[in-house]
Design brief:
Number of strands: 0
CATH class: Mainly Alpha
Shape: globular
Number of domains: 1
CATH superfamily: Nucleotidyltransferases  domain 2
Distance between the termini: 17 Å
Largest sheet: none
Number of helices: 5
Structural class: mainly alpha
CATH topology: Four Helix Bundle (Hemerythrin (Met), subunit A)
Helix content: 55-70%
Radius of gyration: 15 Å
């Protein structure tokens, strides 16, 4: 298993991801499902950014781009053949749907069912767990 020496910024983003996940759970308990989805989404976004690092040329990660690069799995297995499916392919569609749901909650102001919000929180927790187990990080 690869052990990555995270710099201060990466550690800060990873910690933020965990805090956002806690916030999402509190929002869900308060019946604020749309806000819970938004915080849970940004939990996964920050966690992915933490392991991928900053994008090239001082740019910022675009939401669908960060999902694409995260799912490829180069961040923990750099020698993965580029012509084969991503190492975390099972997360590609759920993360893409997560992004769309966050747009619905934040921009379209559509109501979000509590059960849907709970599933998204579980997905954010899964992203953090995938990172934790592959990089041997402490909870």
């Amino acid at each position: 298993m690869l052990v990555v020496k995270a710099d201060g910024v990466q550690k800060h983003r990873y910690k933020a991801a965990q805090q956002y996940l806690d916030d999402a759970k509190l929002l869900l308990e308060s019946g604020r499902s749309g806000s819970a989805v938004s915080r849970a989404y940004y939990s996964s976004y920050q966690a992915m950014w933490a392991v991928l690092g900053d994008p090239m040329e001082g740019k910022i990660w675009r939401h669908l781009g960060i999902i694409k690069h995260f799912v490829r799995g180069y961040w923990y297995q750099p020698d993965h053949p580029p012509d084969s499916p991503g190492l975390l392919e099972h997360l590609r569609l759920p993360l893409r749907r997560f992004y769309d749901l966050r747009i619905e909650a934040d921009y379209d102001l559509n109501p979000i069912d509590m059960a849907v919000a709970e599933r998204q929180i579980k997905l954010a927790a899964q992203v953090i767990q995938e990172i934790r187990q592959r990089l041997e990080l402490e909870p």
